[in-house]
């Protein structure tokens, strides 16, 4: 019994406990990371609603390794993803007004975040659109960016 208690205490000292919602050893750090990601999503919503797809894309990783999974399949790369957004949403009527509902935001590992949410586009002229998304984020060079987006 004494060995079991010692082993349990040793494992707690050796392996840091990650919070379920934070994913990092420090709850203050987890809260800061959560705020940073939510702020990027808020900025993306504002940029979209202002008609600026190029600014909306600032939240994405500017890399050929970015992946976007949608109804048409997988798109690889930042430029191809931007081009697809411009093609699919060529004007303000098609873009409409965006609203995100964040359903889950977790940190499964340090510098990695996972977001599940819903999107809704209010588009009086062409019909509303809505669906769900999952976003995989990485903190690269001290900046959170979306490295993979699956929207449907």
UniProtKB/TrEMBL annotation:
Coiled-coil intervals? none
Q: State whether keyword Signal applies.
A: yes
How is this protein named in the record? DUF4440 domain-containing protein
**InterPro entries tied to this protein:** DUF4440 (IPR027843), NTF2-like_dom_sf (IPR032710)
Tell me the first and last residues of the signal peptide: 1-19
In which organism is this protein found?
Spirosoma montaniterrae
Q: Give all residue intervals belonging to the DUF4440 domain.
A: 37-146
Task: Output the superkingdom of the source species.
Answer: Bacteria
Q: Which UniProt keywords apply?
A: Signal
């Amino acid at each position: 019994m004494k060995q079991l208690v010692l082993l349990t205490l040793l494992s707690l000292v050796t392996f840091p406990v990650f919070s379920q919602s934070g994913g990092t050893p420090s709850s203050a750090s987890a809260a800061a990371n959560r705020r940073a990601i939510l702020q990027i999503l808020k900025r993306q919503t504002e940029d979209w609603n202002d008609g600026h797809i190029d600014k909306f894309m600032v939240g994405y990783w500017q890399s050929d390794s970015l992946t976007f999974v949608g109804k048409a399949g997988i798109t690889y790369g930042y430029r191809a993803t931007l081009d697809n957004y411009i093609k699919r949403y060529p004007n303000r009527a098609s873009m409409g007004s965006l609203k995100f509902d964040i359903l889950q935001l977790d940190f499964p590992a340090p510098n990695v975040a996972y977001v599940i949410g819903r999107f809704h586009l209010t588009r009086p002229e062409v019909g509303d659109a809505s669906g769900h998304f999952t976003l995989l984020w990485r903190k690269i060079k001290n900046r959170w960016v979306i490295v993979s987006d699956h929207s449907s």
